[in-house]
Amino acid sequence: MTSPLYPDLPENGLIVLIGASGAGKSTLARTWPASQVLSLDGLRGVISDEPGRQDATGDAADVLKLILERRMARKLNTVIDATNVEQSVRVELVMAAKRHGMPTVAVVVATPLSVCLKRQGPRPANRRVREDVVRSQHQAMTYSHQRLAAEGFNTIVFADNLHRLEPFLKRLSQAREADLGRDGGEGLGDLLLVRRFFGPEILPLWQWRPDSDLVTGRDRVAEIRLGEQHLTLAFRNDVDGDGDFGFGFDVLLPCPFDPECAGQAWAPVYSVTDLHEALTGAMDGAPDIVCTVHGDGVDDQDADPESRADLQAQFADAVA
User: Fold this and answer.
1) Domain tally for the chain?
2) pLDDT-based confidence at 67, cuts 50/70/90?
3) Fewer C-beta neighbours within 10 Å, C or N terminus of the chain?
4) Range scoring the smallest mean pLDDT among 68-77, 161-170, 278-287, 299-308
């Protein structure tokens, strides 16, 4: 058994959610890792491209049973996200677990009928369940409780008695920390920000450069490469320099002030459109470019020799 925070749930077993449409089963199922959840709606979508397509239910159920059998053989925790109000359906699920010596848990999601019916309204037409069907499911859920032990379930619990918020938040926190590179691991880090700025399609092309810290005051340097074309970007941990304005990215561009400049010129980028402009040269004359040698190119640059010396020193550190 797991710690007292998760009462009555084995570490690895079969967890069958039982409830009418609209009871909140999928919301509860999301508190487990997605790889552990077998959703009948999700499999209907895989089979037919429409999660609510009822004529795909039989095929989806066949796929669910096949995957369940393989997961039980591997002793993997598995959550069944479906109404599961029919005794015949539950018995098949329990038998799959018993064949491999896996414990079984029935989780009754006993949401009031009025709530289940109300939740049908905002759903898309192809996901909305008729009122008479929801009523029938809710009644079957209510009467199922007295039969669950006889069907072979080792543990029977009501969803309201579970402690799922803490493990759910813990798992999300760990994922976000890894995305941000703050988990102490050697992963890519900060990809949550990359996704937010540039979209998920960029992630497979993104590679942090090792030993590239402190380039012009930026924290880390990355490269987006596909074939011969690439862009170099710097992650900015402090955009405005005062600690008041979050994170951002700069892209490396040619120096706009001197074509023979040996320094590096950086300009902020906020979207994949900016990346396209940087790659095609449309951003080469951007007004907010800052060069490691020429600064921002304003006339009084030479009047600030300390600032220029600092930029040059940072550039030297970066390319050393």
Assistant:
1) 2
2) very high
3) C
4) 299-308
Residue finishing a domain among 142, 162, 182 = 162
- Domain of 23? 14-162
Residues 154, 197 within the same domain: no
CA 126 – CA 251 distance, rounded (Å): 45
Q: What is the DSSP string of the chain?
A: ---TTSTT--SSSEEEEE--TTSSHHHHHTTS-GGGEEEHHHHHHHHHS-TT-GGGHHHHHHHHHHHHHHHHHTT--EEEES---SHHHHHHHHHHHHHTT--EEEEE----HHHHHHTTTTS-GGGPPPHHHHHHHHHHHHHHGGGTTTTT-SEEEEGGG---HHHHHHHHHHHHHHHTT-SSSSS---HHHHHHHH-GGGGGGEEEPTT---STT-SEEEEEEETTEEEEEEEES-TTSSS-S--EEEEEE--SS-TT--S-EEEEE-SHHHHHHHHHTTTTT-TT-EETTTBT--GGGGG-HHHHHHHHHHHHHHH-
Q: What is the pLDDT of residues 159-174, one digit of tens each?
A: 988 888 878 888 888 7
pTM score > 0.85 for this model?
Answer: no
User: Is the pLDDT confidence value at 300 over 60?
Assistant: no
Beta bridge partners, 199, equal: none
Do residues 118 and 25 both lie within one domain? Answer: yes
Do 126 and 208 lie in a common domain? no
- pLDDT at residue 69 is higher than 80: yes
